[in-house]
Structures
1.
Amino acid sequence: MFQRGYKEMKDKLIITCAISGAEVTKEHNQAVPYTVEEMVDAAYQAYQAGASIIHLHARNDDGTPTQSKERYAEIYSAIKAKCPELIVQVSTGGAVGMSREERSDVLNIEPEMATLDCGTLNFGGDEIFINTENDIIYFANKMNDLNVMYEMECFEKGHIDSTLRLIKKGIIRGHLHYSFVLGVNGGMSGEERDFVFLKDSLPAGATYSVAGIGRYEFSLAELSIKYGGHVRVGLEDNIYIEKGVLTKSNRELVEKVVAIAKKYNREIATPKEARKILEMGEK
Ligand code: KMH
Ligand code: ZN
């Protein structure tokens, strides 16, 4: 009986909402949150719709991205005050061009979860999102020291291979949770064969979530729901609710995933259940 209940819980769907990002602006979609109040409202609405994790990039009030620990602390504690059980996953990716020291400042607030970007890729035009092997080791060591759970962001298969090498060396450790970010201009695309290749390349016992960029958001969400993975949506990744129609909110994007999950009889995990599925300790 206990076994069955445990399995049912493990089958639940973790929805992450990437509410803000670092690159998308209000010029793209008015619903992109900048201020602390806007961040809290976006997080709360997404949580109410079914998100158990918020992927957070801090912004200054004028919308510029920042990795400042003071700004993150302000937003993080305001979100926690409004929704204490929600998992707030901070970004150590920051924005393209930031140094690793700048990007890692946020870890000083000792969040319960953060991203660990697992390789370099082109990011459109002249942009390169740099994550050297030493960068990955630097972030992983810092998160190990501060007891921060990491979600490994992989934009292509080579990034998974890099994690396997670092797992062997004992640098990446703990429960292995991956996020495939597919469809970036410069990264791997988000067709079914790409997704299947990645999920089949993971080490035993790993869990994964999928973030489809732009037009891939909902097709990949559906695939991941079908195959037993987890899903990330949000304005960071996609600003449309359907082709050519701007979404009204992060909440609406989460609601659309919940509707797809219903079709496949995947129940939605609460934050407490998500913590268990991801084998996170209590913070
Ligand atoms: N803003 C991108 C350059 C992450 O959050 O860890 C990197 C990013 C990844 O969004
Ligand atoms: Zn991000």
Note: The radius of gyration is 17 Å.
2.
Amino acid sequence: MSILRITGGKRLSGEIHIHGAKNSVLPIMAASLLSSGETIIHNCPSLSDVDAAMKILRHLGCVAEKKDDTVYINSSTMTNCQIPDGLMREMRSSVIFLGAILARAGRAVLSMPGGCELGPRPIDLHIAAMRSMGAEIEEHGGNLICSASGLRGCRIDLTLPSVGATENSMIAAAGCQGTTVITNAAREPEIRDLQDYLRELGVPVSGAGTSIITVEGIDLSKSVKRVEHRIIPDRIVAATFLSAAAASMGKVDILGIIPEDISSILNVFTDMGCSLNVGKDWVTIDAQGGFRAPKPVVTRPYPGFPTDAQPPLMAACLKADGTTVLVETIFENRYRHVPELRRMGADIRIDGRVAMVSGVNKLHGALVAATDLRGGAALAVAALAADGTTEISELKHIDRGYDGLVESLRALNADAERID
Ligand code: UD1
């Protein structure tokens, strides 16, 4: 069992370069199935979710290799259209492969992704979108059996702006006949990154970043293009380091980011009284003078405050001056890390979707366990602000989304080590 041991009390200082976005890489890896060509993805983080996506591609018969931060995919050899249960469970967002396999092979068999640590994570919108493009989908013994003799473009009205359903629809639409218009689409920056990749494949797509996305499907089956794509920086990792810098009352340069993509996050830290200096692709946060509780923070689809940034922010607010009100509107069970934070002396009350975080003078180190990816990151942030040593177990959750977390923390002067 691996643990992350952090002894708090050191102010973070120095600079951190933010790695590529997990939530961009995964749909783009799935979309690489659309053509029979090669895809080279740069700025790809080393994460267990990326490893799982590579395993899925290999299981489908493709070549998928990673060297440093570059992934090479050759999907000309795809032979299989089924993802077994074990691989589906390894990566919760593996349903993102549905649209790509269906568009490429006309058939897809996936096991139903069960519930997850954030509460039930339905895929009804993904299924409805594929059906409206002409797919027939049945459920047998926990498997989704999907077939389509030829997907066709259509209008997809999403009842809520699901990130995954928007991406699955875009990917399937790229490989089908005719024009698809997706309304109430998610507007996250990762959707824009997927649009850029699809355009590099030659697919006319427009509207990413707005609520209406139009995709002109093209016949990619004979496309043997070689596409190179660079992944955008990870907004949530940036939010985590902003939280860590604040929690430790430090001063950190966060480099390689797209500041406009994190403006809702930057606004909260400004509201907390942290001093922010924002450049073209960097931000410096200075929290050496302490910070106060921000105005209530409500998680919303982009451009609102991201649900994934809420747990690390909560951890930073544990030692804020005053009480922070957080309202989680995207996922149930997004407060599973709260009992762990309480073991460290946090004063948090939960009432349904609302968390009230009262700042305390002292947090103390404790033995805690990561409950999910961002909840695990929150424990690391809190540990930086605590007196004494915290040991975090269940690192498999954190490894899904943070590449080299310990090395980055150490480079920022934190007393952190990983014990495998
Ligand atoms: C993506 C991100 C995840 C982030 C989330 C919200 C990836 C790999 N993951 O997840 O990190 O937390 O966006 O920003 O990009 N819903 C339905 N039916 C569906 C699909 C979703 O009801 O078919 C609901 C979900 O239960 C949730 C809400 O829609 O309440 C948003 O989910 P969605 O945007 O789909 O999140 P993911 O794409 O799974």
Note: The pocket of uridine-diphosphate-N-acetylglucosamine is lined by residues 23, 26, 93, 121-126, 160, 162-165, 186, 306-308, 330-331 (CB under 6 Å).
3.
Amino acid sequence: MSVSTDISLADYLKKYFGFDTFKGNQEVIIRNLLDGEDTFVLMPTGGGKSLCYQLPSLILPGTAIVISPLIALMKNQVDAMRNFVSTDDGIAHFLNSSLSKAAIQQVRKDVTEQRTKLLYVAPESLTKEENIEFLKQINISFFAIDEAHCISEWGHDFRPEYRRIRPIVEKIGRAPIIALTATATPKVQHDILKNLGMPDASVFKSSFNRPNLYYEVRPKVNATREIIKYIKANPGKSGIIYCLSRKKVEELAETLQVNGIKALAYHAGMDSATRSENQDKFLMEDVDVIVATIAFGMGIDKPDVRFVIHYDIPKSLEGYYQETGRAGRDGGEGRCIAFYSYKDIQKLEKFMQGKPVAEQEIGKQLLLETTAYAESAVCRRKMLLHYFGEDYTEENCGTCDNCTHPKKQFEGKDYVVKALKVILAVHQKFKAEHVAQVLSGHATSGVKSYKHHLLEVFGLGKEKDEKFWAAVLRQMLVHYLIEKEIENYGLLKVTPKGHAFIEKPYSFMIVENHDYESLDEDNAAASGRTAAVDEELLSILKDLRKEIARKKNLPPFVIFQDPSLEDMAIHYPVSLEELNNITGVGQGKALRYGKEFVEVIKKYVEEKEIVRPAEMVVKSVVNKSGLKVYIIQSIDRKISLEDIANSKNIEMGELLDEIESIVHSGTRLNLDYYINQVMDEDHQQEVFDYFREEAEDESIKAALDELGEDDYSEEDIRLMRIKFFSEMGN
Ligand code: ADP
Ligand code: MG
Ligand code: ZN
């Protein structure tokens, strides 16, 4: 017998929610539940899962129990529900540990008097004996288990209390169960059905395609500036920006604020009052943008989020899909932009070192899928849906960057063979960088120390540079021709598939023009320009630099470096304050040399009647980086560089990068205590004189060529260059 077929559900939909039609397969799901069947709903975020239990709860006699994981969000859900169904305030309630005794009494009264149609309960409240006793006495229409993937350890948000739901339902008294989730991997599905003891439930799986979302991956070059530009070009629109670390969340939120954007931060390290206040402000549209860690967003129903930006590439595609899913829930515009640099992947790999092997293996696999997604030339939608076990067959989805701006590809078969040969020739005991150096024939000190410059394969791919080879190696990883041992610091090994490839090579298309290598905020200005440089101004500034250099008897590059001048020729800073925001210019530099530069720029702007691109003048929060402060303090205390690097868990090269950036922005550091330990005085003098008198520019490579790689390491030269800049320039 079917109760549901006689009812016109559309009338109820219209009456209670004001919608004219059901979304996706909402209607069949609701009918199934009305018929008293156990129901399992797999629907992407924004698909309209809530309505699948809200509507039947209003139709059926009794109260529906909704189990939902986040206390903070329950209130929002209940408010939203009351908003829709304005006929009666008593219609939805929640029961959780945030309520006072009196409030609990009131809720119980409403439920007992049968006014409450929907009762939201947190899983930890459900397990309380007094609540079980109470629920036993009332008439329950059905149980709804939202975010049901929390049951599974394989889900991205496992909650142990979720595993106790089934036995408690038995205690309270059986009623139909509807479980809902946006996680569709087969493993998680299986876990849910098993744990809830409903192997015969009707399963409704919707397509996970979100046709209104536009997917895009951009190289992480000047990401902050790109984000500010994007937000300013889309005024008044709501958006979420995800970062991986709490620190970055705070920094970025602050940078957006000083640039006049209404933005707030959200992460799990904030106190809960501030956190929910910030979330409410976003929901109420007092702020446009939330900068958050992934702690933000689950269950949030803000239908008109217009963009979701990933400042950092996420750890898994699953997570990426959930997070982007928060855009365009109402079916309107939803732009998903991810900033990607391979460096970020390497950072995530590093975090995994030392974790249990099984966990590493899973993590490695997830990262590989993310890399593949980011670097691929294939339709993004196709790749995402494939990940969820769905076949997307359209040639061109029309709403992803790879479809609207196809990337060039070329046949890479021969390159792959060369790379495989070199990996084998170095006995599969070296990292990608080393392999790329051997391939391109770059005899670095590392290569020489293993005598790899004497190998027959040395320079086997010298027609291409290291960057090219690094990209080829990444694409080989993605296609399982080689693999990387995370535990052993990323040594490359050839897989059986790779061996087969050498035996019998086949077509292997490689994506061109992808510069995802080692680009990040700090060196971005040097490698990628987002706006056109005013060449005329640039040459004026270079002349000025030369003149000042001559007067002070210093090499020009000590004053400002090229990237700084280029940045000035893009942004036309006309005050010292604005100059501070130019790449590589800190307060020290701005004060010492800035005046003359801003005066020249000001004059130029006035003469040429240039309209300065105000939205491009990105203000930064000066000297915020905790790492930099730590380094400066440690050097003041004469702590050895090795110890500093160790205590911050970074490599020496990265530490030197940081120190260089500190010195370049005008802070003076005295490294003598360290340099004196690692280099004798004569050598120091020789390098110093080289930079003082001979150097054409600041290049390390040129210095090594001139001074001899046998006598000096790259690190020596960098140390002396830092000393030189610090003493002469600052
Ligand atoms: P999910 O929980 O699946 O992520 P929600 O239940 O929060 O999605 O619903 C997403 C959005 O879709 C909400 O703004 C909701 O009001 C809207 N919605 C749900 N059903 C319909 C419908 N039949 N017609 C129009 N909008 C709907
Ligand atoms: Mg939901
Ligand atoms: Zn596409």
Note: The chain has 34 helices and 17 strands.
